[in-house]
């Protein structure tokens, strides 16, 4: 398709739109955000002012911004060929635009750069939910620059999208182990707000999702523009605002892979594909962003279609104490309460009596399991449950047969390895023989025992991640990430139906790249429900509940030492992919009965939980939280009212339930299955007492517009409401 004066291309879906003007040597984005309709005048109004003390032509922010355009900000491309070819000049040679069947579509722009001797491509693909995925690549082509010979060293390739000046407030995330996805927000100032994940993975402090929005945006209100990098290696996110703006716009929002020096060197014919950058716009707040991203994930052919089974993971129940008698009792109690899948965690393989040894030796420890895992697998299957097994395939202990036999398979410089982390190092999966060893050992065990499920862990950052293969030391973070992807893909192809959970010391590797290859994520190693309430709330910005593992832990948290009531722990673990880690053998008969009731409630409601739309009330008091899951047709909903701390105010007044139809009428009840939460008051609001006894009917306008008074709970307490829309 041509790219002359009439070449304005539009992608639109679900109220969002992208408009690209393909005129000129490099196209530019005329609009990204709310669908403006025909918008015939966008090109006519596209020329910005010519500023004082500036280039003699108005600046244009192109889809591939470089200095040639007068762009003084972070460039889309940075690199060189032995110190030359440092000023890329891509020029458009081809446009292909294909509309989508259900909205959206695809615009592919191809470029030739005679300075860098690269052919480039950027593809904008909008799905039917209005989510914009942008893929970018470069290929070395020496025919473009006769006489050039040196490989091109790529230092960075980023997607940068323009945002308007009303996007004045910034939100991204930080965190640490057991406190992942902690939000941080403030005004977008002049300069560059850059977040770089330099841990060999996204990390516990990953930016996760960078958002720019109108002042004061919340869950249910405000206009937002966001970016997420679908990549499980190192990344760079940025929001940048220059005094001169970005042509038509005020700032840029972007992301790309963070490359190590010399990591990508392109010889003639070699290609680099950047990770997909996922951009989302919403005119209805953060919940609108989450809804679009959840719909996108749920539309995948690979998305789990079966009900998500109730899981018991053995880690916090037995740790490394893999005693068959103890596990037999645990499995029996798990079956009694309604568990549907047992996962045997760390400690089953050779030499693994603690975290100091054994990683890499993926053979069942004959000293602990003289008959192999068969007795346990048969026991689990005899109770009608699935069987899963823990691995940490990318890691190795120096105290292992593998490391002793192949010390050069450990990532690290020849001058000597740096410090261990959790007593372990990283195995060079990009080395073919190491890759084959791990693949074959996992595949053999999956085949021998008919394993249904793998928990795939990754418990340390990558530091000095250089490979010593082929007689040279080279940075290998990118190669390691691509090898991980190949390994996951190959194992799933070898064992159709195998499910894989991604874990990285909990929530250290949560991104859409890993979720393309896995079926569940472990959001945090923290089973403390107070912490998880926040961790999972923000994890749900990107990931729907059915992909987030949430486990019932012990009364006294393993990671924080906080003690919480059973009812609160049960409520916190209900509205995701529920599981158990507490030692059920220490539970009283009364506690077991409550866990059994919770398991029944999960099975009853999981179709709603795992398909509904997430909504969050915007509340002035940070100590309380109202989160809902509303069926896509609006006919059924579940809300959790929780308090984590005390507040100055004695009561909250009327609280609106988001996501309901004000014109409808609803039947509502308090679900008391998990126990009665403790209150910090003398008596409930009158309607609560009635709804606790039976269903009551209320107008949607009361629930969603005026709001209803809710109980003042004591800290670390929660109450659950169920609603059904009346005909």
Automatic annotation (TrEMBL):
UniProt xrefs under Gene3D superfamilies: Aldolase class I, alpha-galactosidase from lactobacil brevis, Golgi alpha-mannosidase II
Top-level enzyme category: hydrolase
Top-level taxon of the source organism: Bacteria
EC nos: 3.2.1.22
Hydrolase among keywords: yes
Organism of derivation: Glycomyces sambucus
Record's keyword annotation contains Nucleotide-binding: no
Entry keyword set: Glycosidase, Hydrolase
GO biological process, any: carbohydrate catabolic process
Catalysed transformations (reactions): Hydrolysis of terminal, non-reducing alpha-D-galactose residues in alpha-D-galactosides, including galactose oligosaccharides, galactomannans and galactolipids
Name assigned to this protein: alpha-galactosidase
Domain (Glycosyl hydrolase family 36 C-terminal) ranges: 629-723
GO molecular function: alpha-galactosidase activity
Family matches, as CDD domains: GH36
Classification via Pfam families: Glyco_hydro_36C, Glyco_hydro_36N, Melibiase
Annotated Glycosyl hydrolase family 36 N-terminal domain residues: 27-267
């Amino acid at each position: 398709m041509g790219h002359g004066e009439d070449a304005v291309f539009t992608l639109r879906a679900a109220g969002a739109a992208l408009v690209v003007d393909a005129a000129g040597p490099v196209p530019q984005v005329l609009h990204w955000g709310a669908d403006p309709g025909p918008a015939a005048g966008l090109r006519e109004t596209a020329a910005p002012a010519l500023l004082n003390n500036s280039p003699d032509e108005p600046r244009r922010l192109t889809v591939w911004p470089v200095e040639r355009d007068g762009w003084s900000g972070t460039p889309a491309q940075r690199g060189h060929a032995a110190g030359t070819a440092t000023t890329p000049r891509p020029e458009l040679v081809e446009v292909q635009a294909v509309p989508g069947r259900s909205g959206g579509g695809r615009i592919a722009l191809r470029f030739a750069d005679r300075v860098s001797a690269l052919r480039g491509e950027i593809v904008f693909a909008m799905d039917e939910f209005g989510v914009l995925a942008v893929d970018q690549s470069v290929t070395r082509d020496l025919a473009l620059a006769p006489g050039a010979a040196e490989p091109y060293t790529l230092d960075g390739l980023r997607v940068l999208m323009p945002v308007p000046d009303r996007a004045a407030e910034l939100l991204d995330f930080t965190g640490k182990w057991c406190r992942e996805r902690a939000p941080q927000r403030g005004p977008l100032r002049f300069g560059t707000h850059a977040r770089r994940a330099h841990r060999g993975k996204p990390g516990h402090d990953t930016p996760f999702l960078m958002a720019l929005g109108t002042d004061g945006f919340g869950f249910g209100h405000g206009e937002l523009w966001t970016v997420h990098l679908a990549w499980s290696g190192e990344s760079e996110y940025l929001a940048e605002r220059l005094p001169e703006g970005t042509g038509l716009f005020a700032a840029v929002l972007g992301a790309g892979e963070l490359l190590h020096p010399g990591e990508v060197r392109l010889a003639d014919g070699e290609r680099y594909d950047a990770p997909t950058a996922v951009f989302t716009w919403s005119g209805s707040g953060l919940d609108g962003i989450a809804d679009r991203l959840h719909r996108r994930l749920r539309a995948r052919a690979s998305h789990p279609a079966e009900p998500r089974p109730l899981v018991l993971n053995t880690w916090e129940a037995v740790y490394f104490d893999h005693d068959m008698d103890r596990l037999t009792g645990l499995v029996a109690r798990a079956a009694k309460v309604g568990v549907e899948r047992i996962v045997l965690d760390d400690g089953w393989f050779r030499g693994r009596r603690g975290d100091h040894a054994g990683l890499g030796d993926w053979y069942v420890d004959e000293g602990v399991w003289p008959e192999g895992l068969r007795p346990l697998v048969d026991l689990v299957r005899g109770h009608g449950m699935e069987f899963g097994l823990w691995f940490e395939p990318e890691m190795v202990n120096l105290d292992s047969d593998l490391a002793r036999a192949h010390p050069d398979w450990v990532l690290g410089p020849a001058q000597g390895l740096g410090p261990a982390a959790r007593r372990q190092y990283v195995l060079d999966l990009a080395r073919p023989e190491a890759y084959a060893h791990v693949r074959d050992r996992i595949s053999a065990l999956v085949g021998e025992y008919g394993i249904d499920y793998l928990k795939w862990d990754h418990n340390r950052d990558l530091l000095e991640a250089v490979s010593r293969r082929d007689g040279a030391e080279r940075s290998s973070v990118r190669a390691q990430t691509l090898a991980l992807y190949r390994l996951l893909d190959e194992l799933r192809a070898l064992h159709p139906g195998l499910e894989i959970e991604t874990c990285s010391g909990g929530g250290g590797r949560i991104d859409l790249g890993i979720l393309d290859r896995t079926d569940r994520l472990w959001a945090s190693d923290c089973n403390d429900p107070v912490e998880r309430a926040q961790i999972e709330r923000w994890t749900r910005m990107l990931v729907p509940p059915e992909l987030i593992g949430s486990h019932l832990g012990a009364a006294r948290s393993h990671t924080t030492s906080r003690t919480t009531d059973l009812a609160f722990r049960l409520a916190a673990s209900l509205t995701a992919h529920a599981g158990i880690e507490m030692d059920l053998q220490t539970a009283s008969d009364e506690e077991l009965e409550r866990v059994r009731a919770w398991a029944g409630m999960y099975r009853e409601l999981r179709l709603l939980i795992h398909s509904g739309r997430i909504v969050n009330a915007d509340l002035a008091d940070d100590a309380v939280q109202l989160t809902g899951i509303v069926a896509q047709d609006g006919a059924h909903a579940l809300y959790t009212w929780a308090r984590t701390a005390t507040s100055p105010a004695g009561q909250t007044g009327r609280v609106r339930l988001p996501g309901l139809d004000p014109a409808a009428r609803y039947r509502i009840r308090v679900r008391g299955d998990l126990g009665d939460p403790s209150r910090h008051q003398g008596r409930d609001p009158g309607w609560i007492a009635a709804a606790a006894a039976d269903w009551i009917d209320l107008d949607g306008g009361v629930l969603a517009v005026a709001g209803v008074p809710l109980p003042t709970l004591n800290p670390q307490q929660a109450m659950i409401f169920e609603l059904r829309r009346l005909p």
